[in-house]
Amino acid sequence: MSILRELGASGLMTPPLVLGGNVFGWTADKAASFRLLDRFVEKGGVMIDTADVYSSWVPGHVGGESETIIGEWLRASGKRDKVLIATKVGMLDGKGGSKLAPARIAAAAEASLARLGVDTIDLYFAHQDDEDVPQEDALAAFDALIEAGKVRALGASNFHAARLKSALDIATREGLPHYRVLQPEYNLVSRHKFEGELQDLCITHNIGVVPYYGLASGFLTGKYRGEADFGKSVRGGRMAAFLAGKGGAVLEAMDAVAVETGASLAQIALAWLAAQDGVTAPIASATSIEQLDELVGAWDVALSRNQLDQLTAAGA
To answer: What are 62-92's pLDDT values in tens digits?
Structure first.
């Protein structure tokens, strides 16, 4: 049974797992995506994370494919009131300019709203920092969306600590909205981008954290144990770096915890993330009902302090 957690000071709440929408329209077709979304809600899931750039990397795609499928599902299912929709702007150039240019934010938001078929985006992320745009200008553009009722809360993704702190200081000084949620890369084998100054900043300012790559592109499922396994998926080529680092030691520690708990490695990886200071809910995606059920099961895994410490130490 899911337990809702407050997402920082955003006013939003979610169980300790957010469903990643990057696969919708890519490795999960429309029918599969609908089944996954229905099952996520059935299991008690609340927040769905997508972006206007998903899945522009696929030949023939232009971005917005994931949002379009989610929008079609919302209309077909009638479940808009059961979910929170998070999407992003800042990686696709287009109408209004590039990245976080104010006119681009405004145009991209309208396009996302249309594809999703909703009146309001519950959580709107700056997908990446844009040092070419004064932060007060970007925040003012987001403020206009909030004032118009088109966005409920703001988040920042892929921001370094200094830039996030700068944005918070400017928002306070200018009376502009604060970023209430952070979406960083963070998992058992990739910790340096979040731990330390950025994590401390989020805790101090009550910024909810929803990490992506919670399973390290599948490495933390235990599927990739050596070079012979790299061909198991399109992401296999990324695994060598994990194995060359602390990955082997982390998998060994996870194997030991799996024996003690009966949980899968994916569940252990997500449960470890959800137990870290400042973290509200990791993001993970699935392409089958079996995968989704496994991921959702992570919120029922309670790791002991000793188990958490062993996992943390393995990747240190």
So the answer is: 999 999 999 999 999 999 999 999 999 999 9
Contact criterion met (CB below 8 Å) for 264 and 254: no
Evaluate the omega torsion of the peptide bond into residue 190 and state whether it is cis, within 30 degrees of 0.
no
Please say if the pLDDT value at position 1 is more than 60: no
* Per-position DSSP letters for 202-262, written without gaps between them: HHHTT-EE--B-TTGGGGGGT---SGGGGGGSTTGGGHHHHHHTTHHHHHHHHHHHHHHH-
Whose structure tokens read 């808009």?
80
Q: Which helix (H) or strand (E) holds 49?
A: strand 47-49
Quick check: 104 and 128 in contact, CB under 8 A? no
Cα separation, 96 vs 86, whole angstroms: 21
Chain position carrying tokens 């030691």:
249
pTM for the model stands at 0.96
The pLDDT assigned to 230 comes to 76
Task: For residue range 142-185, list pLDDT tens digits in order.
Answer: 999 999 999 999 999 999 999 999 999 999 999 999 999 999 99
* Alpha-carbon span 264 to 298, nearest angstrom: 9
Given a contact cutoff of 8 angstroms between Cβ atoms, the answer to whether 115 and 67 are in contact is yes
Residue written as tokens 């790791």?
Answer: 303
More confident residue, 195 or 241: 195
For residue 16, the SS3 value is: coil
- How many residues would you count in the chain? 316
Distance of CA 79 to the CA centre of its chain: 21
Asked if 178 and 172 touch (Cβ cutoff 8 Å), the reply is yes
Task: Look at phi and psi of residue 71 and say left if phi exceeds 0, alpha if psi is from -120 to 50, else beta.
Answer: alpha
Query: How far apart are the C-alpha atoms of 55 and 21, rounded to whole Å?
Result: 10
